[in-house]
Design a protein that fits this description.
Helix content: 25-40%
Largest sheet: 7 strands, mixed
CATH topology of the largest domain: Aspartate Aminotransferase, domain 2
Distance between the termini: 53 Å
Protein name: Cystathionine beta-lyase
Family: Belongs to the trans-sulfuration enzymes family.
Shape: globular
GO cellular component, one term: cytoplasm
Structural class: alpha/beta
CATH superfamily of the largest domain: Type I PLP-dependent aspartate aminotransferase-like (Major domain)
Mean pLDDT: 93
CATH class of the largest domain: Alpha Beta
Number of strands: 14
Pfam family, one: Cys_Met_Meta_PP
Number of helices: 14
EC number: 4.4.1.8
Strand order of the largest sheet: 3-9-8-7-6-4-5
Length: about 400
């Protein structure tokens, strides 16, 4: 991918993405030269006269200087004109749905984070908003769903969670626009360091800041990035009205995280590729899913629209869920926990953890088998990670042997 064109109105928005991750949106304090953006712990602001706020700040539910600095930083990384930060990734997506009314439709990928699926179907479906889930790798299926009309959003994850499928963002965005819809891409797994959907034609980018952008498993947050000022105004109105704001300390933590995004993602990618290859070489593993492997059905697309393949690896073991649970229970470097994108390696079984909210029949129909294991590969030494994989495989082998004896 080519380098994004910087928005010169964003402070320090020049240079390559590695440099902007450190500097964009942040200026030293004019009074004392403090290099880091302060954490503004305040709820309200002195006004110059009634109804005339100083520098546009009135109340921290609406906006806060620390949050503004992060929003400018993220906008620079995603080649956006603006950013809005929220209490969580789901709060960000919910603010998008506030723009919908009864009878509007949302077309989304059928391999979707369980929390997003729950938000769509159980929270907003009751208000007359219709959701249709399709295979986002199948452009004909996407086009057919959009052709039914009245679509407000085409909502994509790429790579998806947890099956790491890729949507052809450029092609999907063109289909969405032809149908009068906005193309929204959840870019959490790839991060702007590896993929910038707005440059490929998408209208809005969504992030869970909790994951790679924060990067240290110590903050929960979300963001929406875009270019259309009218859409920004509508989303910001709902954000303020419902109180889905992002706190200043959390904003500071994410800004600290983005400064090391480039070096962390390089290590995540190299470790994940090594882990994926190691798993693929084992006879105990039925399938390894990682866009960086030539066995991935969309490996070519990944190389075309991403500059790296990410830190997430999913795989299926012979022996199904029992073997998967045994594998997870045996690891020592990989911690059994939900979430992803931190410096530490995590492991989980999606059907009984992060994706348990999706009915089993729907999960299986989308290709999410009961024994799937998902890895968030961290930045530890690769040899320690591979040793831990072998520890898990040995435990899975014992489970398989016991099952064979019983049968």
């Amino acid at each position: 991918m080519s380098e994004p064109t910087p928005n010169s109105e964003i402070p320090h928005n020049r240079g390559r993405i590695d440099t902007r991750a450190v500097h964009a949106g942040q200026v030293s304090d004019e009074r004392n030269g403090a290099l880091m953006t302060p954490v503004y712990f305040n709820s309200t602001y002195e006004q110059d006269s009634p109804g005339v706020p100083r520098q546009g700040y009135e109340y921290s539910r609406t906006t806060n200087p620390t949050r503004t600095a992060l929003e400018l930083n993220l906008a620079s990384l995603e080649s956006a004109e603006w950013g809005l930060c929220f209490a969580s990734g789901l709060a960000a997506i919910a603010s998008l749905l506030h723009r919908c009314k009864a009878g509007d439709r949302v077309v989304a990928g059928n391999d979707l984070y369980g929390g997003t699926h729950r938000l769509f179907t159980r929270c907003y479906g009751q208000f007359g908003i219709e959701f249709e889930f399709v295979d986002s790798t199948d452009l004909a299926a996407v086009e057919a769903a959009l052709a039914k009309g009245n679509v407000r959003y085409l909502h994509l994850e790429s790579p998806t969670n947890p099956l790491l499928r890729l949507a052809d963002i450029e092609a999907c965005a063109k289909l969405a626009h032809a149908a009068g819809a906005l193309c929204v891409v959840d870019n959490t797994f790839a991060t702007p360091y590896l993929q910038r959907p707005l440059e490929l034609g998408a209208d809005l980018v969504v992030h869970s800041l909790t994951k790679y952008l924060g990067g240290h498993s110590d903050v929960v947050g979300g963001a929406i990035l875009g270019r259309d000022p009218k859409v920004r105004g509508e989303i910001a109105y709902y954000q303020n009205a419902v109180g889905a704001q992002f706190g200043p300390m959390d904003a500071f933590l994410v800004m600290r995280g983005t400064k090391t995004l480039a070096v962390r993602m390089e290590r995540h990618c190299s470790n994940a590729l090594a882990v994926a290859r190691h798993l693929e070489a084992s006879d105990l593993v039925d399938r390894v899913i990682y866009p960086g492997l030539t066995s991935h059905p969309q490996h070519e697309l990944a190389g075309r629209q991403m500059s790296g393949f990410g830190g997430m690896v999913s795989f299926e073991l012979s022996g199904g869920v029992d073997a998967g649970v045994a594998f997870c229970n045996a690891t020592e470097v990989f911690t059994l926990a939900e979430s992803l994108g931190g410096v530490e390696s995590l492991i989980e079984v999606p059907p009984i953890m992060t994706h348990a909210a999706i009915p089993a029949q729907e999960r299986r129909a989308a290709g999410l088998q009961d024994g799937l294991v998902r890895l968030s590969v961290g930045i530890e030494h690769v040899d320690d990670l591979l040793d831990d994989i072998d520890r898990g495989l040995a435990a899975a082998a014992k489970t398989l042997a016991k099952a064979s004896v019983r049968s």
